[in-house]
Amino acid sequence: MSSQLQLxxxxxxxxxxxxxxxxxxxxxxxxxxxxxxxRNFLFGGxxxxxxxxxxxxxxxxxxxxxxxxxxxxxxxxxxxxxxxxIFALLVHNSSSRAVRKTTxxxxxxxxxxxxxxxxxxxxxFCNYETGMLNIxxxxxxxxxxxxxxxxxxxxxxxxxxxxxTNLGADAVVYLAALSSVDPQLLEAATIDGAGKxxxxxHVDLPAIRPTIVLLFIxxxxxxxxxxxxxxxxxxNDLNLGxxxxxxxxxxxxxxxxxxxxxxxxxxxxxxxxxxxxxVISNFLSKRLADTSLF
Amino acid sequence: xxxxxxxxKSDRAVNIVINILLVILALMCVYPLWFVIIASLSDxxxxxxxxxxxxxxxxSLQAYKKLSDYPQLFVGYRNSLFYLFAGPAFTLLFTxxxxxxxxxxxxxxxxxxxxxxxxxxYFTGGMIPTxxxxxxxxxxxxxxxxxxxxxxxxxxxxxxxxxxSSIPEALYESASIDGASEFRMFVQFAVPLSKAMIAVVxxxxxxxxxNEYMRFIMYISNPQLQSLQVYVRQITQQLTSxxxxxxxxxxxxxxxxxxxxxxxxxxxxxxxxPFCLLYPFVQxxxxxxxxxxxxxE
Lengths: 294, 297
Description:
The complex is a heterodimer.
Chain A: H1 3-28, E1 34-35, E2 46-47, H2 51-58, H3 62-79, H4 82-92, H5 97-108, H6 115-126, H7 132-139, H8 151-178, H9 183-191, H10 196-207, H11 209-221, H12 228-234, H13 240-243, H14 246-256, H15 260-289
Helix pairs in contact in A: 2-15, 4-8, 5-8, 9-10, 11-15, 14-15
Chain B: H1 10-40, H2 44-48, H3 62-65, H4 71-103, H5 110-118, H6 127-137, H7 144-147, H8 154-165, H9 169-177, H10 182-193, H11 195-211, H12 214-219, H13 228-245, H14 251-294
Helix pairs in contact in B: 1-14, 4-8, 4-11, 4-13, 11-14, 13-14
């Protein structure tokens, strides 16, 4: 058997799996333009053109859903984004190996937890009757807070738990980049009288600038994709006004409500926006950082 | 990585500040988990009074004994253990040979095939078309709908391919002169030389399987096949809603409430602890895996 043939055979299972489970559903996106049910979705269904999209845009609450998605996305990518960088700088510059090792290990642990466990932990702490935070509040003589029932607290709780979960893991990349900073530069800076913070700002940060820029721009491209699993688990009747995002809405109308075409239309619309952003961010990345995805 | 900062006087104070800050952060990261562990070993009355903060109070194992009231947890645990090994096994089985092929520069159409796989990282059909496909294939509610589609992901493919790429071409050349086939070279050279990468893929994949929730919710309804996370969610939701429905009046009701809350702690502990305990031993593998994720070559 020729070696080309052998190599093809080795790839065959993967090619088949990808074709069936990634490319065929891609074609399946066309159901956004059709009316289908479970039996005929690939080959049948009535063509209805942009009907689903017209329905989508005429719904009042759709604007709210997109707004919620963007709020979560933008804050994650612009406000929370520097935190792992700062954390990495601190860890890297710690004078104690013990502190460095323990902090790294400890900060990564939350990342190992499943979404279900993280949301359970949120409940364990924030529950009105039994949550640890509220128990402590009443012990101190203060009044309890309905953390989980208030719309205005949904986002803070969401973001704090996001940071808690991701800080250690996100910092790993920056830590690796920091470890390749030229020690001679740091020596020179020290001789010139630069204190630790000055060294961090003038030597460390610029050295990892390419990594920072690359990751930042890559993130922008995926701005429309907010992981919906955690939001879905955190949703309740009281916070839907801010917690309904594109992903959760697609899930609820599509799989639960069985409006397959309609929810696919939303999904498709979301993907198109995402695609445009990926292309733009890739272009920016080429220009600003000399690196790109394509 | 010892830093000679005794040339700068202010550094001594800065070092102390940084180290204190980091220790506080480390404690904040770990405390929620620590609390759940000590709470699961404590007397519910003490917890409700807010006396449990750093160590268990009124130590008892009732939280764990009560777990037997929920046999579905054991079914879920068994299933999740199964997926924990079967999932990564399938991933390695499907991904490694393909990654090997992609790493061989002699492969015809190599660029095209790379594109074919990598493109799927950016465009997917999404939730609904995928669900409909699985429904059409008639294998909802089986282990295959979980194991086969997830056997190949561009992420692990790239990781494996990068690792295989670092194997020198000369090795393959001399082997093929001796008449070795591609299959042989894969099994006898590529795989043994990539043990670290295989460990990374296995670990990452195993963690993802253990934590998987949405896919099980969407594709599995048979209680015998359901995963631990789904049952954990179900049970903790149950426990929470009964708590808010009851009127906080009589002592007996309080008792029942607190016991139900206790279960939340032990459930979280048995679900989260395995990987948390494993982690310190395999930390370097996780670091390597995260690296590739960010810098996709």
